[in-house]
């Protein structure tokens, strides 16, 4: 079967390529990483397509099953044959679902591989400009104490206000007798991708974020940032956003819209950050960043397309970076 | 009565200080029924220390006012703050609504001078530490804020030219000591009332002035604000019983702590930072995070709804005297808060600046319209809050709501209330800046 073949080749190639990337990370020319990443991305898309097809097929089978099981068909004559075909269809359905799920996982894994290989190539290419590869954090002295737990919005006059439930979540800590409230619904999922390197949603661009520590251009307030992987609490600061296309070449003149919010919390950033300038091809300065609390934040950089104004915002390409501060 | 209460704290502070050096002998151990209540861990103590007034430090450096820490400016500012003759009627000063004996509030639901203000007067104590002024944060500095009341019809009800003329007539020397020599004769040719913000006549008069004169007036006008800002930056908050308690915590002597805080007050403190979750917004030495939240204090009937920060940012965008204006001493790129001002977002709708809870027990009534007369009512609201009502005609979007019911027992509510009473500082009779 065609699908199986793809799976096999992909698995082999995938594993082989990681090994390869590992063994030669010092000497491999940039392009090789980037070529590899592109190859993996291509395969990932094919596998994803196959996976989607399987899901579509599975849904067809499910429909057939439903029809067979429908009460109006329950006449005695057909009982036996129907039983047979039902059990066959059930098997088929399970198989398609299983394969579909497997391929989806595979595609995801391939994309991860592609991203990490691309990151490697990206770093080779931008070596002198990258000051930090690590996910962004917040200075560790800042304790996670003061967070307000807003979960509900206003209600309509006629709505019963009883919907709001008491906030009883307090942190039991062995070293404290005070029951300081914990952050509710703030905990990021354990497998959350918090990489500072990401493909765009449409997988047409690749970007890296880091805290901008260049003191020559920043204002006095941002000068005291020393830990390059840590964003400050409650202080306006800058980021660098570096963007390339899939060949690893910087992409210039992108207009970005910047958004940030805390999932599980109905508020955004306290400021309205924006890209203020492009310091060199593909290196954008994001100014006005400010985080008023620790926790899980999502930063979104939306690529504003100039050409087709009619493009619905849904179709705009964007980068999403998760931060767990 | 607020004063007697404040006096009590003052005397209790003195007595405690007198007997505290060595009260460790078991004879004078107070009977503590619940010793665990007074046990605080190392981490507890570190955590609570963040609320101590000793951690406050100087107000953040001002970028837009280079006279912010100039003592002469502060002196001039003090004179301006208390001078009634600068208002149109000669009856009102800043201190009419920000009275030192009432911890710079006025005890009213809505303030009264030339008219009645829309909202209630907050204290100016600690305001120097806040990045935004007013309940809705519609001013980005204390100097810009101080210019508002002068031209407000409900407050000084005067105009820019009238005010500037009076200031320069009365305080010519003090003014020039701080801001440098200026030619004073331009005030002689000014119309009685002229301002870009006044009534029609006043606005027309302003239009008839040449750019240079307008500029001279605005320069002096904004400098008076800078002097009043310098003044307000000098206002210190004395230690309260709460601060003494925090300071005494590291001794780990429950009986000494029990002399400062009753068991009920300790329970209240534990609730405040714990189950009642007040500290999530009311935190730090001034008991505020300076952020904007909607806690759903009910909008009074027959009134436009409170749009809070949503409206505040709109005003900031058109304000004449922000950090970005020509009257500011900052370079444009230093005004980060204004450059990256958040102007949209549902969380701005109906959101107000978290007020300080210092001296809260003696500064009733509460909330932006004085909706609550007592702390009991405030706590009852937090305990079972009514979310803001969505008024489709007036709200740009469904207002945000930032709190959840606490379901505190009656006893817990009382404990919380008694804790808030420990945040009252004695009136510093000898601090000249307070003008007591």
Structure report:
- The complex is a heterodimer of chains A (325) and B (436).
- With 325 residues, chain A is an alpha+beta fold.
- Chain A has two domains: 2-125; 131-325, Immunoglobulin-like.
- Chain A has helices at 2-23, 30-69, 79-126, and strands spanning 137-138, 197-199, 205-211, 230-231, 237-245, 255-261, 274-280, 283-289, 296-304, 318-324.
- In chain A, helix 1 runs antiparallel to helix 2 (30-69).
- Chain A is extended, with a radius of gyration of 25 Å.
- In chain A, 30% of the residues are buried.
- By secondary structure, chain B is mainly alpha-helical.
- Chain B folds into three domains: 2-49 and 240-276 and 427-434, no CATH class; 71-232, Cytochrome Bc1 Complex, Chain D, domain 2; 292-405, no CATH class.
- Chain B contains 16 helices and two strands.
- The longest helix of chain B has 23 residues, at 211-233.
- The two termini of chain B are 18 Å apart.
- Chains A and B meet through loops of A and helix 2 and helix 14 of B.
Write down the overall mean pLDDT of chain A. Answer: 77
Number of domains of chain A: 2
> Total strand count of chain A, please?
10
Proportion in β-strands of chain B: under 5%
Largest interface: A-B, 46 and 53 residues
List keywords for this structure.
heterodimer; A: 325 residues; alpha+beta; Immunoglobulin-like; five-stranded antiparallel sheet; 10 strands; B: 436 residues; mainly alpha; Cytochrome Bc1 Complex, Chain D, domain 2; 3 domains; two-stranded antiparallel sheet; 16 helices; 2 strands; 37% helix; 1% strand; disordered N terminus
């Amino acid at each position: 079967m065609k699908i199986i073949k793809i799976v096999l080749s992909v698995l082999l190639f995938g594993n082989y390529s990681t090994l390869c990337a590992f063994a030669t990370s010092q000497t491999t020319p940039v392009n090789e990483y980037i070529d590899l990443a592109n190859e993996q991305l291509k395969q990932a898309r094919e596998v994803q397509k196959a996976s989607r097809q399987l899901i579509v097929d599975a849904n067809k089978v499910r429909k057939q099953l439903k029809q067979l099981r429908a009460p109006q068909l329950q006449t005695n004559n057909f009982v036996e044959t129907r039983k047979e075909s039902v059990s066959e269809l059930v098997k088929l359905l399970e198989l398609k679902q299983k394969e579909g799920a497997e391929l989806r996982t595979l595609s995801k894994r391939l994309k991860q591989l592609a991203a990490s290989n691309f990151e490697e190539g990206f770093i080779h290419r931008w070596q002198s400009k990258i000051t930090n590869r690590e996910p962004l954090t917040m200075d560790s002295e800042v304790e996670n104490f003061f967070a307000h737990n807003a979960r509900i919005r206003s209600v309509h006059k006629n709505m019963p206000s009883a919907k709001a439930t008491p906030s009883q979540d307090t942190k039991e800590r062995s070293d404290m007798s005070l029951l300081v409230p914990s952050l509710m619904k703030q905990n990021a999922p354990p497998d959350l991708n918090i990489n500072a390197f990401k493909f765009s949603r449409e997988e047409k661009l690749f970007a890296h974020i880091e805290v901008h520590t260049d003191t020559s251009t920043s204002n006095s307030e941002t000068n005291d940032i020393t830990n390059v992987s840590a964003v400050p609490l409650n202080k306006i600061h800058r980021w660098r956003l570096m963007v390339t296309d899939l060949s690893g070449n910087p992409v210039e003149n992108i207009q970005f819209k910047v958004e940030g919010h805390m999932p599980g919390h109905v508020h955004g950033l306290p400021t309205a950050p924006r890209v203020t300038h492009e310091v060199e091809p593909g290196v954008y300065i994001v100014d006005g960043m400010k985080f008023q609390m620790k926790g899980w934040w999502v930063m979104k950089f939306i690529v504003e397309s100039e050409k087709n104004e009619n493009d619905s915002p849904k179709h705009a390409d964007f980068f999403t970076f998760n931060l767990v501060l | 009565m607020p004063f007697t209460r404040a006096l009590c704290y003052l005397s209790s502070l003195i007595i405690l200080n007198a007997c505290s050096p060595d009260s460790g002998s078991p004879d004078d151990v107070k009977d503590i029924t619940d010793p665990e209540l007074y046990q605080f861990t190392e981490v507890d103590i570190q955590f609570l220390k963040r609320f101590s007034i000793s951690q406050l430090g100087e107000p953040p450096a001002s970028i837009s006012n280079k006279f912010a820490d100039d003592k002469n400016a502060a002196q001039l500012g003090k004179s301006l703050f208390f001078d009634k003759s600068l208002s149109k009627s000669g009856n009102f000063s800043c201190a009419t609504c920000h009275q030192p004996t009432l911890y710079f509030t006025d005890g009213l639901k809505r303030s009264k001078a030339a008219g009645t203000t829309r909202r209630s007067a907050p204290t100016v104590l600690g305001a120097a530490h806040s990045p935004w002024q007013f309940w809705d944060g519609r001013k980005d500095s204390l100097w810009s804020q101080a210019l508002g009341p002068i031209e407000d019809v409900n407050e000084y009800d005067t105009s820019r030219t009238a005010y500037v003329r009076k200031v320069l007539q009365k305080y010519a020397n003090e003014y020039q000591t701080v801001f440098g020599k200026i030619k004073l004769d331009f005030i002689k040719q000014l119309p009685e009332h002229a301002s870009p913000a006044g009534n029609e006549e006043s606005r027309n008069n302003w239009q008839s002035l040449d750019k240079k004169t307008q500029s001279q007036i605005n320069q002096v006008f904004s400098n008076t604000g800078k002097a009043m800002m310098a003044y307000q930056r000098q206002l210190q908050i004395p230690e309260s019983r709460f601060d003494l308690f925090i300071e005494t915590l590291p001794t780990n002597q429950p009986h000494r702590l029990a002399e400062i805080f009753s068991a009920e007050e300790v329970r209240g403190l534990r609730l405040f930072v714990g189950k009642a979750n007040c500290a999530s917004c009311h935190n730090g030495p001034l008991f505020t995070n300076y952020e904007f939240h909607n806690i759903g204090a009910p909008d009074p009937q027959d009134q436009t709804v409170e749009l809070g920060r949503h409206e505040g940012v709109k005003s900031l965008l058109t304000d004449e005297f922000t950090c970005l204006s020509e009257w500011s001493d900052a370079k444009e790129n230093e005004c980060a808060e204004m450059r990256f001002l958040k102007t949209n977002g549902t969380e701005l709708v109906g959101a107000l600046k978290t007020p300080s809870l210092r001296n809260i027990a003696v500064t009733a009534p509460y909330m932006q319209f004085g909706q609550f007369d007592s702390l009991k009512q405030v706590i009852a609201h937090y305990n079972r809050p009514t979310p803001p009502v969505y008024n489709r005609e007036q709200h740009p979007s469904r207002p945000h709501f930032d709190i959840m019911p606490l379901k505190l027992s009656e006893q817990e509510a009382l404990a919380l209330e008694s804790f808030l009473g420990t945040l009252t500082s004695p009136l510093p009779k000898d601090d000249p800046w307070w003008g007591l």
